Every structure is written in C-alpha cells, then in structure tokens.
Amino acid sequence: MSSIAYMNIAIVKYWCKDKFTPYLIPLVPSISLLSTKLYTKTEIKESGKDLFYLNDILQDEKETNKVFTFVDKVVKNRNKKICINTYNNMPTAAGLASSSSGYMALSIELNKFFNLDLEDNMLCKIASIGSGSASRSLYPIALFDKNGEIEKLESNIQFSMIAVIVNANRKKISSRAAMQISKDTSKLLDVWIEKNTEYADIMKRALKENDFNKVGIIMEKSTNLMHEVMKSSTPSIDYFMPLSYEIIEFVKKLRLDGINIYYTMDAGANVKVLFEKKDEVKIKKIFNEKYEGKIIDVI
Ligand code: PMV
User: Fold this and answer.
1) Model's pTM, two decimal places?
2) Among residues 152, 168, 203, which one ends one of the domains?
3) Fewer beta carbons within 10 angstroms: which end of the chain, N or C?
4) Same domain, yes or no, for 88 and 175?
C-alpha cells in the first residue's frame, strides 16, 4: 500500500499564518495549480520503532521528530509504531514545494493505514497542519481561503509550467520560520493582507473567464508583493539569487517580444514559468536552449 500526492504551485501566494485551530488558518487566501509531473509517494509499514526514510535515506532525529509530531497530531493515541518511506521525484526543499506533496501524501497514507475515515475536506485540513500549501494538493486548482477551507476551482485554461532550477540545495531558512519573522516585523503586513485578498478575488474571476493573461498578471503581482513582504522583514528574508533576477528579466523580455509567459517564485531561488499548452513546444525549446540542464517540467 502506498499513497501519491502531487505538489502544487501557488498563483496567488500564501504567506503567514493567523493561528491553528488545530487546523491552519492563514492570514491570506491562496490559489494553486497542481503539478502533473512532480509528486511524493509515501508508504507506511508497521515497525518496531518509529522511523522516517526520505528517498531511502534514514532521517536524523530532528527530521524524524518533525514528521512524527505531525503524525501524532493526526492519529491520536496511536497504538502502532511505524516506518514511513517517502520518495520525491524532485529536489527536496529547493523551493519546489515538496512539502506540499509530502504532507498530503502522508495524510492520505495515514488515513488509509489507520482507517481514519477522513473525507477530502478533512484531509486538506489535516495536511494544513504540516504545511499550509499541502492543503491545496488534492485538486487541480485549489483555493485555500482565509477560514482555512479548501475549495475546488475550475477553468478551461490549459496550463503548462516549467521550473528553472537555480539552486537545488536545501533552503537557508524554512518557510515556517520566515513567515513568523514576516508576521512579527514586516511593515507591509497590512498591505499584504488587503492586496492578496483582492488578488484572490480577481484570480477566481480570471480562471472562470479563462483569461490567461489576467491569471499571469495577478500571479506576478502576488509573487512580487510576497517577496517584498519577505525583504521588508527584520532580518530581511531574501530567497533570490542573481540568476533568479536574470530569468525574470528574460521572461519579461520574451513577453515584450509577444510571447505569453509569466513568472512566479516561492521560498527558494528557483523560478517557475507559466504559459499555455498551445505555446509549450516553442517556449520549452527557448528555455532548454538558454538554461540547458536546469529545466524541470511542472505542469
Ligand atoms: O506550505 P509552506 O508552509 O511551506 O509555505 C509555502 C509558501 C509558499 O510556497 C512560499 C507560497 C505558496 O503559497 O505556496
């Protein structure tokens, strides 16, 4: 028995928690697209001792405790010790949101293994305890609203997305720690809450009206403002590397040349590029030539 969940990339970003009820209530709504390529596969077996393997490597005490703290929040009065085997088909913690697929795959697998009888809505809430973005990993397009509820959205837009890998190493500061710093210190927090709530409303309409350009414009606005919030925190949080800026400039230049593409970035230096399926061959060719060996298909 094993469970699979795909990672998601936000087109309206989530950054900062309000509280746990015990489920996560975010400060802002967010909207995501589910990857069709990058996933986590998780398998649980009964074991003499609680163990956690990631890509066949036994994890240290810190990582193991983190995962089992989550397990014990989901499964109360657990009567079995378990071994968790997790595989990611993507670089872990590279700003490619492996936590989103990771906590969703684990939630689905726990649900099966311990017969928890959780329905989809509850699975999303459970996953949000591990990672806010994980709550969005059940649906192709998901809205995680300010009440901590997940809504499935629809659109006829045929999305395609690649990631340009700038840095595949573990990130310097976890998103959890960084969000707390932003919440405690960023002067832009009120602007963030107000504007991103507005972006979510516009994005919902743009998806419904199949307006790809509006989706792209709002995605960039939400990304830019989120990174302003990070940078305006004390200490300043900056996930960009020189190559991240270069790729963004390249996206903007292509757009001026009439190619319909938009960028987004998460808590890492990698840049994701969004376009429509109909332009996929042309755009992938351009990026594979310019950033050879650094391109990963996301959608
Ligand atoms: O799910 P977390 O706690 O790792 O937060 C990730 C937040 C961003 O990836 C930066 C944005 C988002 O909405 O996915």
Assistant:
1) 0.96
2) 152
3) N
4) no
**Domain check: are 44 and 142 in the same one?**
yes
ipTM of the complex: 0.98
CA distance 61 to 70: 14
Please check whether residues 128 and 235 belong to one and the same domain.
no
Regarding the beta carbon of 97 and ligand 1, being less than 6 Å apart is answered: yes
Q: Is the CB of 131 under 6 A from ligand 1?
A: yes
Tell whether 171 and 276 lie within a shared domain. yes
123 close to 108: Cβ distance less than 8 angstroms: yes
Q: Which atom of ligand 1 is nearest to the CA of 100?
A: 1
d(CA 289, CA 278): 19
CB 133 within 8 A of CB 238: no
* Average pLDDT per 10 consecutive residues for the chain, totaling 299 residues: 96 97 97 97 97 96 96 95 94 68 98 97 97 97 98 98 88 90 98 98 98 98 98 97 97 98 95 98 98 95
Question: Per residue in 266-281, pLDDT tens?
Answer: 999 999 999 999 999 9
- Cα 163 to ligand 1 centroid, rounded to whole Å: 16
The three-class DSSP label of residue 225 is helix
Q: Is the CB of 10 under 6 A from ligand 1?
A: yes
Structure tokens at 121: 């809505």
Domain residues for the domain of 165 are 159-297
Give the model confidence (pLDDT) of 247-265 as tens digits: 999 999 999 999 999 999 9
Q: At what angle do helices 61-74 and 120-130 cross, to 10 degrees?
A: 150
| 141 and 176 assigned to the same domain | no
Q: Are 172 and 268 in contact (CB under 8 A)?
A: no
Single out the residue in 87, 121, 152 at which a domain terminates: 152
| CB of residue 30 inside a 6 A radius of ligand 1 | yes
